[in-house]
Design brief:
Lambda Exonuclease, Chain A, two-stranded antiparallel sheet, 6 helices, 6 strands, manganese, exonuclease
Length: 164
């Protein structure tokens, strides 16, 4: 499971299915490019992106403050805040699985000059288990889920696949 899959689960099940089935449109998206630039320029280059992978999960953390045990995830906008929160909760759960206890998260919105604290509760752990089960069901399907037709679809990198 990846952080992107968790994120797409909350945004759009169709986007999740397309992404997992290697239909990747993000390389053509200006919005994604801007987000990557913000993320890459927020922290020192040598401390940027920590990749953790095992047989079950594969994550890339924007920045990890090991002294204070804080995961930092950098985002361009807070429009999809719930998605960002669950992505960080997922990252915390992966670190816990690796034996790193007491980790919290922080979502940094440099453009907005805001930070959101994130913690993982027992209820969240149970919910993450259900989310992961639902993701497996979605990505295992033979066909893509239906188009959701939300206002944010117009800015999605997959827009043309869904509407044109």
């Amino acid at each position: 499971m990846t952080g992107t899959q968790i994120s797409y689960y909350f945004i759009c099940h169709r986007k999740l299915w397309l992404f997992v089935n290697q239909i990747d449109m993000e390389q053509t998206s200006d919005i994604v490019s801007i987000g990557k630039f913000i993320s890459e320029s927020t922290y020192e280059r040598e401390k940027h992106e920590i990749h953790i992978s095992d047989e079950e999960d594969d994550i890339v953390i924007d920045f990890y403050d090991s002294k204070n045990r804080i995961i930092h995830e950098v985002k361009k906008s807070d429009k999809m805040e719930e998605t960002h929160i669950w992505q960080v909760k997922f990252y915390i759960s992966v670190l816990e699985k690796k034996g790193i206890i007491g980790v919290t998260g922080e979502i940094d919105y440099p453009k907005l000059r805001q930070k959101i604290k994130v913690e993982l509760t027992d209820k969240d752990r149970s919910e993450l288990k259900l989310i992961k089960e639902n993701i497996i069901k979605i990505i295992s399907s033979e066909v893509a889920p239906d188009v959701i037709n939300k206002s944010f679809c117009k800015k999605c990198s997959y827009y043309e696949l869904c509407y044109v």
